[in-house]
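Weekend entry, working from home. Most of the wet-lab plans are on hold until the incubator is repaired, so I used the time to fold the two sequences that have been sitting in the queue since the last round of cloning. Logging both here for the record. First:
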Amino acid sequence: MTAIRMYCTGICPYCDRAADLLARKGVGDQLEKIRVDKSREDMIEMVERSQRRSVPQIFIGDRHVGGFDDLVELDMAGELDELLAGLDTA
């Protein structure tokens, strides 16, 4: 399983900003983008997993982080680095 999954669309600036933040953290290569605007099944999966309909919806490992604002809050609190350090990089 991919370490970081982000449900997104092709025209979402917050999705792009979340991907950029994760790339700056050095984990961009571990990011799997799931385009919910191209697949109804993926949209249904996103809503079932996150209980939200907005994008992005970000999962790090099994943890639902939330959207871009939630990701930034984790980063500002210093918790994002800890969460990313716990990823299996093998």
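Second, folded right after the first finished:
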Amino acid sequence: MRTNTPKYDEEFKRSIVSLYQNGKTQSELSREYGISVSSICKWIKRFSGVKIDSDTIITAKQIKELQKRNAILEEENIILKKAIAIFTPHSSRD
């Protein structure tokens, strides 16, 4: 049976991650806000940015969205290749 776990909005989660990035420990945040350490850890992984180059930072959420979009495009590409093979007349050299 499911317990009543509180739902936190994205803005709150981001503020907790920001506090962590500014020096608070996960255990301090857990005690202060009554959030499990495992939840805080998940939020840090989700909302912390990865620096790509000097002016580009990307989050784990954005990476997942890009991976999903890439999979869709790869599938479309396979379908188009099959369609070309079906509709392109094959010339025979005799």
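Plan for Monday: verify the second prediction. The radius of gyration is 23 Å.
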